[in-house]
Amino acid sequence: MSASGRERPQFARPLTSVEICAGAGGQAVGLHNAGFEHLDLVEWDPHAVATLRANVASWPGWGERRASELNPMDVKEFLKSEVNAAPGIKKGDLDLLAGGVPCPPFSLAGKRLGKDDERDLFPDALRIIDELRPRAVMIENVRGILEPPEVFIDYRRDILGMLRDLGYVVPEIKESWSAVEQDRVMRKVWRRMDASNFGVPQLRPRAILVVIHESVLNESGAQFVWPSKLKGKRATVVGELAASMEERCRMYWNKNKHGERAKPGERTGEQVYLDWLRKATEAAELGPGVAPTLVGGSRKHGGADLGPTRAKRAWAQLGVDGMGVANEPKKCDPERDLFRPAGPMLTVQQAAIIQGFPEDWKFQGRKTAQYRQVGNAFPPPVAEAVGRAIAAVLRPEHRDELLRDYELDTASAGSRAPQTEQMVFPVSGVPAVDSPPASHSRSDLVRAGV
């Protein structure tokens, strides 16, 4: 069952996809739930690849043997390798090329170097698109590539220009326009989506690029329409974590922080749970009750936690200690994991629930490696929403069935400005955004090898 509560769509002619920078499978899960069948999953991190191997065997076209053959691969080598699907795909036959290109080049933490960052894989994605010429493209990144618009507006315009040259339907955008006007028009194909609008109890704004090849639109006549939110009540932290939090605390229901039977006046696991429940419920009653954006970090940095100082303060209002990640219940250290002044820490599995992963998704590696996979993931329900909207263009006869659980942005495409992200507490002294770097010209991409 997918995040929208619907069964996975089945098509007479399967929709095919190739995914680059697949990570631990967040986008892949969402696209699978939207009805796509993955011909290949490309990821270089060995822990994330192990997670994919442990989970995708039941997907169409995979099986235990093929899943076991998944190995780390650099996106730059995808078209050259003999162990991937690329050589067997004829140009124009692939339905969807999807991927979450690395975020550091466009994030504040990564110094926003853009095309000057060696981790920028947009040129490699464009090479693959040129070679395979998929019917649709979906690329996910951090919102920093969009906001504020003047920082990367030239780079984004050049990318869209190259996609237009490859036959994808992209609006006309003139360099003489202001950055704000260019950004407004770009929202027809490249916009921010907030996970909290799609059944995920977390803010997590992401930048999503979707383009459809002109041959598809000429054939079907269908237009891509952005989903704006999942119908129904918004998911909250208290609603999504109540069951797992109670299960963790029940192991110490009448015990103290040392795991011993509590004496009169000593705090028990039951009190830990009730204190958390009260705070998380109050947060849902006073505001949206959703979590701040999880941060996965990188392999170069130390142990995992739930984000910067502001995020930790937000977690504290939700009754959670964000200073680290708890051990799984079987290895629980009650004093460290549960009986903390600010509240219990989250386990990796609970963080995965906050991201919208299915509860049976098995992450591989040690705790910190698992958490980084979760924290860096694209929430599956958001990927499913966009995937269903793409599928509605590729299989227009299923449009109503695919999109009936979503509210759609049927207004003038791209005219609606993104809403400001709201934290669950007031903050002040937010650092100013870095000054915009020098303009990125189209020739920069050509020199990068596109």
From TrEMBL:
Annotated TM spans: none
EC annotation from Swiss-Prot or TrEMBL: 2.1.1.37
Alphabetical UniProt keywords: Methyltransferase, Restriction system, S-adenosyl-L-methionine, Transferase
Catalytic reaction annotation: a 2'-deoxycytidine in DNA + S-adenosyl-L-methionine = a 5-methyl-2'-deoxycytidine in DNA + S-adenosyl-L-homocysteine + H(+)
Biased composition (Basic and acidic residues): 441-450
Location of region: Disordered: 429-450
Keyword Transferase attached: yes
Active-site residues per Swiss-Prot or TrEMBL entry: C103
Record's keyword annotation contains rRNA-binding: no
Pfam families named in the record: DNA_methylase (PF00145)
Broad enzyme group: transferase
GO BP annotation list: methylation
GO terms for MF: DNA (cytosine-5-)-methyltransferase activity
Family statement: Belongs to the class I-like SAM-binding methyltransferase superfamily. C5-methyltransferase family.
Protein name: Cytosine-specific methyltransferase
